[in-house]
Specification:
The protein is mostly beta strands and about 120 residues long. The chain has one helix at about 25-30, and strands at about 1-10, 15-20, 40-50, 65-70, 75-85, 95-105, 115-120. The longest helix has 6 residues, at about 25-30.
């Protein structure tokens, strides 16, 4: 699985090392059955086009809370949630193409409208 760097261009956050999940299986597994995320790690779920339904997430079999960020095709945050463990569904308020999942402590560091940067 490819690892990419994520940075918030709208603030001076550090880089996050995130898993790039663009296959059916990698998106299906996501964070299920994993241990707690490290502070500088996460994953990004990649869809082919913007959608609300295709970027909905569940927290079943995830034993910890996370920061969930929904991004449009330009990598701008269109919604965010502090996703609680074992909840059935989180659906973005706006269509998104990407979902970023990070450690729960990063929730206040991101705002709707922030521009994110992905690099290899």
């Amino acid at each position: 699985m490819k690892i990419v760097k994520l940075r918030n261009a709208s603030s001076d956050n550090h880089d996050f090392q995130i898993k790039y999940c663009d296959t059916f299986f990698s998106k299906l597994i996501g964070l299920m059955f994993s241990n707690e995320l490290e502070l500088d790690q996460g994953l990004i779920l990649v869809e082919k086009k913007e959608s609300k339904s295709n970027t909905a997430i569940h927290m079943l079999f995830v034993n910890y809370d996370i920061t969930a960020l929904w991004l449009d095709r330009n990598l701008v945050i269109v919604d965010k949630a502090l996703a609680k463990r074992w909840r059935l569904a989180y659906i973005p308020k706006e269509s998104a193409q990407y979902v970023v999942e990070l450690h729960r402590d990063h929730y206040p560091s991101f705002n709707i409208g922030d521009q994110l940067i992905l690099s290899e």
